[in-house]
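pasting for the record
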Amino acid sequence: MNGQGSILSGSRVLDLTDEKGRLCSRYLADMGAEVIRIEKPAKSADFHWENLGKRSVTLDIESKPGQDMLRRLLETADVLVESHPPGYLDALGLGYNKLNKINPRLIMASITPFGQAGPYRDYKSCDIVASALGGQLYLNGQPELPPLKPFGNQSYYLASIFAAIGVMLALWHRHSSGKGQHIDISLQECTAAALDHVLVRYFYQGEVAKRRGSLHWNGAFRVFPAKDGYVLLSLLYQWPTLVEWLESEGMAADLADEKWRDRDYRLQHIDHVIEVLERWTKSHPAAELVAKGQAMRFPWAEIASVSQLLASPQLKARGFWVQVEHPETGRKFKFPGAPVRLSRSPLIPPSVYLPTQPALKGFASNTLKTPRRGKKEYPNGAKTPPKRGEYPNKELRQRR
């Protein structure tokens, strides 16, 4: 939805993504861009959440009428975000080199499992594969157990964020050059780029990071079970104060011994420290531990459940949660608001899938629908439409 005064007000984005990149165009819509999603809308909650603020149109880009309509839309578009396999749009005559001739100012972001080049270029993937081959999966879980998948589709979210950043950079470059460009986003690379300290420690210290469960990589924090939930506690900060607290309740065991004052000794025997602290935390409610700990200047936090997150007074005071009304049913849903706040270019409130025709100014409404009768025309004289990952173009098949 286009918003006056928003940072991307007046920009038009065409969205040809699947779950790998839907959030990218969602972020652009939040920033005021007019986003037109090209597909048949689905009905799932996840689908709507990732497509807030967008308009939609059903368009068969594998047929010649659909391709012609897409080209017309691209003549006035600023950005195209897509997540088809490499070579798929080229086979349809819709690759970047062709589209750049139609609109030299067009910015095209392609989000694929492994990028537009390399030996894995044509391999298929999903989030868990990207997480595995990007190094993320290896680091999640308990040391003695197999790797665990991170919560959610983290590689898709990372790729969408990096793609949105790439689009903003390309728009900035276009201000001075007047030219668009192609942005190549790889799920594997986005995942590997977010490994944080893991790669730094390997490159500079030769240290291979291990799975640590909920224990922070440097031993500074760990999640502990409480009587009614979970808490995040510091293990190294203000050690004498922590031990004195445990001693006052008769639960310090041998941690009051002089040897435990040595930080390195505690790290070398961290399992014993965890064992003693875990017995103690299980005897207290989570909120009680955190309240008393924070009063002593410990950087502790309660692990918020979903219900606690929704009831957070901090998020409520900042108006983070927004009500979105479904345009067809009238039912209202609560969604997370924008995590970015600009003082001069505020992001616009989201809405669920807006009507199509107002977004497609200058196009007759009857041209927006794929013809249901008559023979379809496919590229290169093919009798059937190409499937995702299959190319009707002989040259592309041979090259693959």
